[in-house]
Predict the 3D structure of the following.
Amino acid sequence: MQSSRPISSAISSAAQAQTSFDFLRQRLPALKADLERAESRLNAFRTQTGTVDMQQQNVALIARMSALEERQTTLQLALDAAQHRYRLDSEPYQSALTQLNQVKRDIADASKTAANLPTIQRQ
């Protein structure tokens, strides 16, 4: 008879687990709806108060800075190549120079944005 206890205990545990699983499965749609309502209220609050997710803003700024620096490197290489092929007053050289200068201005603007973040957000 001792061998029936572990089986009985396992069956009981499995039944309890199934009951818990069924309960959670039934509650899931309501919990999901509650979460969606809470997120909607948070987004509405952010819209009304003009607040943003600083973490998300920082990630976007870092990605932008990285893309701009990559673009700057590419344009600098193109400008160097154009300098060896064309005269300095040629259209291809001037176009590369204009694009590079624009990217440098964009980097400066992004750097100003980063500098204006609260100190705790820049860390």
